[in-house]
Amino acid sequence: MIPWYFSQDGVREFHKESKAKKEKKILKQRQNVNQNRAILVEKADAIKISAKKVSRWAKKGDKHRATEAMMSVSFDLQNAEPALTNYVNNLLLLRVYEIMNLEGYVDPTTLPEAMADIDYGLYSLSTEDELRDLLSQATDPLAIIGIDVK
Amino acid sequence: MSSKARLENIKAHTLSLKEFVNTTEGIISGLAILRKKITKSEKKILNALESGKQAEAISEILRLRMYRIEEMVEQSALSLVRSNRFYNQLVLDVTRGVEANIKYDAESIKDMVPEDLKEIMSDSIEASDFYDILSNYKDKLSEFVQTGEGTQ
């Protein structure tokens, strides 16, 4: 079975482009990934600051303020989901561009039939929904131990 | 295929193979660094939970997810690079085999595909002690996440 990821127009087009155009696209995609990552790191830092406030208010016995800070942690954590999905989509595209730019790269769609059932990990998924589900099940410690954050 | 064309073919696939072997090594080194970051992040979460700081434990979860996502992307990239590395190796082996009068058919080539190329993701979602220990704090964590209230 041909992995869906490699049949997308953007990926197919990249394969046909000149070396210079490929490198330009890689550079732009790398900038996208860096921006996405910076947003996530900023969010993680903001969540940490709120979390420390929880500890501080709780220590002082101020339950209302501690609860407010806790809600902020929980809310920010749930709101990070679209940023995470965007990050993984851009990172997947960047890595595929970088690999396609290697000399002698052969697309999975043109590899011999004998190599058809190779597991390409996230590149083997068939839809974005499937990607989102797998990311939650495999990377979210809360979901793994059975806590629903939605 | 003429002898000259075969030699050119071998030369091109040897160069590509080298490129993919080097890239594989680079990804594996990157994965080792990510694994260390993941372990460090997991330790931070468990230490916070052991000190009764549930909010601080949860605050580290986003960072841990980011690292684990990066690990999964790298493992997926590794499978793509490995398939290309294997393909180049396969072409070289078969070309040399044909020169030595070895007969190949679809089945024998299929048998040459290593099993580990088909099992990348199962390795990435590996169980660890971290999740066993984390589940001990499930009640405290779930109270925090679902209601936005809890104790510190």
The gist of it:
Chain A is mainly α and 150 residues long.
How would you describe the overall organization of this protein?
The complex is a heterodimer of chains A (150) and B (152). Chain A has six helices and no strands. Chain A is mainly α and 150 residues long. In chain A, helix 2 runs antiparallel to helix 3 (63-79) and helix 2 (19-59) packs antiparallel against helix 4 (81-100). The radius of gyration of chain A is 20 Å and the shape is elongated. The mean pLDDT of chain A is 87. Chain B has one domain. Helices cover 80% and strands 0% of the residues of chain B. Chain B contains six helices and no strands. In chain B, helix 1 (3-50) packs antiparallel against helix 2. The longest helix of chain B is centred in the first third of the chain and has 48 residues, at 3-50. Chain B is elongated. At the A-B interface, helix 2, helix 3, helix 4, helix 5 and helix 6 of A face helix 1, helix 2, helix 3, helix 4 and helix 5 of B.
Question: Topology of this protein?
Answer:
The complex is a heterodimer of chains A (150) and B (152).
Chain A: H1 9-16, H2 19-59, H3 63-79, H4 81-100, H5 128-139, H6 141-144
Helix pairs in contact in A: 2-3, 2-4
Chain B: H1 3-50, H2 54-99, H3 106-111, H4 120-124, H5 129-135, H6 138-147
Helix pairs in contact in B: 1-2
